[in-house]
TrEMBL record, chain A:
Any one annotated GO CC term: plasma membrane
Highest taxon in the source lineage: Bacteria
Similarity section: Belongs to the ABC-4 integral membrane protein family.
Descriptive protein name: ABC transporter permease
Species of origin: Agrococcus sediminis
Swiss-Prot/TrEMBL keywords: Cell membrane, Membrane, Transmembrane, Transmembrane helix
Chief location category: membrane
Pfam families: FtsX, MacB_PCD
UniProtKB/TrEMBL annotation, chain B:
GO molecular function terms listed in the Swiss-Prot or TrEMBL record: ATP binding; ATP hydrolysis activity; transmembrane transporter activity
Keyword vocabulary terms for this entry: ATP-binding, Nucleotide-binding, Transport
GO CC annotations, alphabetized: membrane protein complex
Protein name, per record: ABC transporter ATP-binding protein
Gene3D superfamilies linked: P-loop containing nucleotide triphosphate hydrolases (3.40.50.300)
SUPFAM superfamilies: P-loop containing nucleoside triphosphate hydrolases
Positions in coiled-coil regions: none
Top-level taxon of the source organism: Bacteria
Organism, scientific name: Agrococcus sediminis
Family of the protein in this entry: Belongs to the ABC transporter superfamily.
Pfam families registered for this protein in UniProt: ABC_tran
Length: 414, 231
């Protein structure tokens, strides 16, 4: 215990004495650790924001998607394609899906339908893609509203349907929730309850309504409007994904004669266990930092080796007063470790400080309007500190080896 | 049992070309606790070589060295280092203070390699020792800013800070003027007596040597007793 404290104290004294020299050689380490920490941090941040964007596109783990299509009628034109389902068909499908969700007590789920409808904007009639979804969909796809609220359960009981619009559509109907309380859409009057703004992707009009509200629209039943039959998305615990897939498939196949049912896991994490879309990016960042660090360490070793040769007498004196070879080795190595850890700590502090700067925050949140960044990733700071210590130990072992090789009698002879 | 016991100690140094240099050719020496020994010899006669062997810094080529009856040759390196730190205090001709450290830090150096208790008390022990050698006003002065006499006082304080049983002084006055050297020798004698340590002084200065109880001379790689000249 005392040995360790004494050794660290020696190292610190030594660094204090050679402040200038050590400072010069450690600047490289500071820069490299700052770069490494920043790249790990960016990787971490990109991972968390990219994860959200991946999940908003394909669903969270595990998301089961139930798709259906009408079986070929005997004698029908095999090249005609299924065409759009009728309203009645769609309602029957939604009923069957609701029943299945209830039976299996699925906590988060949403029927999803898509339609193209016309709405009355301030500068005339315009087309918009409307998604029929249920309240859970907001949570399942990270759809957060910038203003107002998303669809809720009690919207099912409204006479005038509720609609959530995005920024692009809001601009087309008046620019603010106050100016556009209602909108003429698909031949009905809908109440605008909330606005979604996810940055770039919400430039173009888009809207969300409850699936049944969408189906009930007078002008939404034309053959051009609907693209596909309704599908069901269920967000279930990963360990229940396989059973759930099988049961939903069986249940809906039985409930809907004349329809084929296909249930698949659709979230991106189901694409493969070791599929990591960010790995190449992180490897590049870390690789770059490693090169800088290697150069910094080489500089450190050069300075340390030169100065060790000037300190041979000192080591001789210390040995004469009882220091063992091992102790000298550890002392020299610790000088290096204490130095790189302090230098690395400064580099990490610079990173954290820079991360807090408004300019940097703005730069990092580009394209994510309104998105607040999480706190500085701890993992990055810890990685930086561990790497500083490891580099110090590696770089220090070379001068330390030289230091213990010198003989006491030679060192103090003259 | 003597503190140090040497029998038939030889030391030779290999040379790059030609035969090995025979420096010590069979030294017999006993140093008892509280002993006062001085060793004289002309320059290059092997005084420092012998002192390094006495202080466990160097090993003889042949012969026996025993510390407290224990053969040094049988000890491991670490053990020797520990024993040296605990038993021996060195005073060198060139002072050999560590540059950049203050007087007190230099005095505390040996305490870094000893028992934990003394390590934690190193500041107090170091300033007490500096006080003892009359340098209480120089505690925080850098070693390099001290005069030669002051540096040697710091070196004496450092040699004594772990209460060694053996003080080895290699030409302690060699780099000082006669008057300062005389005062340094007075101090060294005094602190050695106070500490109850044996003192082996190497010198080529007969006046310095004459202070010791026993005066030995290195001649042709061997020790011989010398008649005590009246001081
Ligand atoms: N490590 C060594 N390698 C080679 N020769 C040495 C070594 N140490 C001492 N010598 C030689 O041994 C002789 C005695 O040296 P030393 O003991 O220092 O003499 P003194 O202290 O009596 O002046 C000198 O000739 C010196 O060159
Ligand atoms: Mg000498």
């Amino acid at each position: 215990m005392t040995d360790v404290v004494a050794a660290i104290q020696d190292a610190w004294t030594e660094l204090r004495i050679h402040r200038g020299r050590v400072l010069m050689s450690l600047i490289g380490v500071t820069v490299a650790i700052a770069a490494l920490t920043a790249s790990v941090a960016i990787g971490e941040l990109a991972r968390s924001t990219l994860l959200v964007s991946f999940e908003s596109q394909s669903g969270r783990a595990a998301t089961l998607s139930v798709n259906m299509w009408q079986d070929q009628q005997p004698g029908g034109d095999p090249f005609a394609g299924p065409g759009a389902p009728s309203s009645a068909d769609s309602l029957a499908i939604i009923d069957a899906m609701d029943a299945a969700v209830e039976r299996y007590e699925i906590e988060y789920s949403s029927v999803v339908t898509d339609a193209q409808v016309m709405f009355q904007g301030v500068s005339g009639t315009q087309g918009v893609g409307v998604q029929g979804v249920e309240p859970d969909y907001a949570l399942m796809r990270h759809l957060s509203v910038a203003e107002g609220r998303f669809l809720i359960e009690s919207d099912r009981a409204r006479l005038a349907p509720a609609v959530v619009v995005n920024r692009g559509m809001l601009a087309a109907i008046g620019g603010s929730l106050e100016a556009a309380r209602t909108v003429e859409i698909g031949g009905a009057t809908a109440v605008v309850v909330g606005v979604v703004d996810r940055g770039m992707q919400d430039e173009w009009p888009q809207a969300w309504m409850l699936p049944r509200d969408l189906l009930r629209m007078p002008d939404a039943s034309g053959p051009m409007s609907y693209v596909n039959p309704p599908r069901l998305e269920a967000w279930v615990p990963i360990e229940l994904a396989d059973d759930g897939k099988r049961m939903l498939n069986q249940d809906l196949t039985g409930a809907l004669p004349g329809w084929s049912v296909d249930t698949q896991r659709s979230d991106w994490q189901a694409w493969g266990d070791d599929y990591d879309p960010l790995l190449p990016l992180q490897l590049t960042l870390v690789g770059t930092a490693a090169v800088i660090l290697l150069l910094g360490a080489l500089g450190l070793i050069t300075v340390a080796v030169v100065s060790i040769r000037q300190r041979v007498r000192e080591f001789g004196i210390r040995r004469a007063f009882g220091a063992s070879r091992g102790r000298i080795f550890v002392a020299v190595m610790l000088e290096s470790v204490v130095g790189t850890v302090v230098a690395g700590g400064i580099g990490i502090a610079i990173c954290i400080f820079a991360y807090r700067l408004p300019v940097v925050q703005e730069l990092l949140t580009q394209g994510l309007a309104g998105a607040a960044l999480p706190g500085f990733p701890m993992a990055a700071a810890i990685t930086g500190l561990l790497v500083s210590a490891a580099v110090g130990a590696l770089a220090g072992s070379i001068p330390a080896t030289i230091a213990v090789r010198s003989k006491v009698i030679e060192a103090i002879r003259f | 049992m003597p503190l140090l016991h040497l029998r038939g100690v030889t030391r030779q140094f290999a040379t790059i070309d030609g035969p090995a240099l025979q420096i010590l050719k069979g030294v017999d020496l006993d140093v008892a606790a509280h002993d006062r020994v001085s060793i004289v010899g002309r320059s290059g006669s092997g005084k420092s070589t012998l002192l390094n062997i006495l202080g466990l810094i160097d090993q003889p080529t042949t012969g026996i060295v025993e510390l407290d009856g224990e053969p040094v040759a049988l000890m491991g390196g670490r053990m020797r280092d520990r024993l040296r730190g605990a038993t021996v205090g060195f005073v060198f001709q060139q002072f050999n203070l560590i540059e950049g450290l203050t007087a007190a830090e230099n005095v505390a150096v040996p305490l870094h390699y000893g028992a934990g208790r003394r390590y934690w008390q190193r500041h107090r022990l170091a300033s007490e020792m500096l006080d003892r050698v009359g340098l209480s006003h120089r505690i925080h002065t850098k070693a390099t800013h001290l005069s030669g006499g002051e540096q040697q006082r710091v070196a004496i304080a450092r040699a004594l800070v772990r209460s060694p049983r053996l003080i080895l002084a290699d030409e302690p006055t060699g780099a000082l003027d006669i008057e300062t050297g005389g005062r340094i020798m007075d101090l060294l004698d005094e602190v050695a007596v106070d500490a109850g340590a044996a003192l082996v002084t190497i010198t080529h200065d007969v006046a310095v040597a004459a202070r010791a109880r026993r005066m030995l001379r290195i001649v042709d790689g061997r020790l011989e007793a010398t008649e005590q000249v009246a001081a």
